[in-house]
Design brief:
about 400 residues, alpha/beta, TIM Barrel, eight-stranded parallel barrel, two-stranded antiparallel ribbon, 15 helices, 12 strands, globular
Length: about 400
Amino acid sequence: MQYRKDKKGNDISVLGYGCMRFTKHAGIIDMKKAEEELMLAYERGVNYFDTAYIYPGSEEALGTILEKNGIREKVYIATKLPHYLMKTKEGAERIFNEELKRLKTDYIDYYLMHMLTDIDTWKHLLDIGIGDWIDEKLKSGAIRNIGFSYHGNTEKFKELIDAYDWDFTQIQYNYMDEFSQAGREGLNYAAEKGIPVVIMEPLRGGRLVDLLPSGAKKLFVNKDVTPAELAFRWLYDQKEVTCILSGMNSKEMVEENVKVADKALPGHFSEEDRQLVDAVKAEIEKTLKVGCTGCGYCMPCPKGVDIPVTFRCYNEMYSETKGGARKEYLQCTAFRKNQSSASQCIECGKCEQHCPQHIEIRKELKKAVKELETPPYVIARKAISLFKLW
């Protein structure tokens, strides 16, 4: 197993264990199977385990397995504060203590503000005292490193990076998100400031493997690389990446991912590898509904619509899975102080004046709203807004 340094010089395994996708039966985590897979990963050198308050049963399962096997002090736990579920500093304290109980520990190695998507949300958290609360936890050792996980665009990510003395951050990043979300620019920006970057969704929830379009799958015939290996190696090739999370739920997956992580050094990616990535991306892009490149020239929208995010999620409805696209759209547009839903468009046309692709943005936004802003989305957006009382 290779290791890369965190901000304080600790060795983090380049492959991290994402605990969101433990195998379940009737909604209950299969603890025997989860323990076997997790312990195999540990024995192969994985020392970073990521979970979250809102992953049903995950924190408690992880805590139970680590305690049973006596390895809590030998690994790093990362979990997250669901700031969107609390209104006060006292609420954060209650949730944090519940997480400690679930994880059977008295400290968290890497603690994240979960889905922190814009600077206004962070400023609100500071206003209710979260900054002081974090400082207290860091001083006491109850939190060893503080960071945030992110879904949103590059510019907002850079604003958040500059807003606080973060120890690390976590972003969605893969070869299809190279120029969207935080993207390569955001990854490099954080790294230049000495902030380690943990990667989530390296396979887009399996969409860069099993759910590849048929034309893309054919490109791997007679190749010595699998779709999963290509995606992981593309990431490991970048020295700015600290750790890549994988939701491993089979021993075979653990063994395959460890094998790749053991040999994929920065700078190893060949020109042939890059050509294969470009060819796969081209096949995926054939399924897109809107030819948006995510350049952002259409922004800012006078009414706050996040146009690139909307089109990215709209395209994912047809290139990947509808459920995944709608979930990402909810995360990126509703979980923020100033919501950025496509339905906020007033058809002023300002965006179309600056679009290099000459997209009929107003027309396409209407189509996206019909697909993405389903009744569950509308209910969730209203609930988030009301709960925050902003």
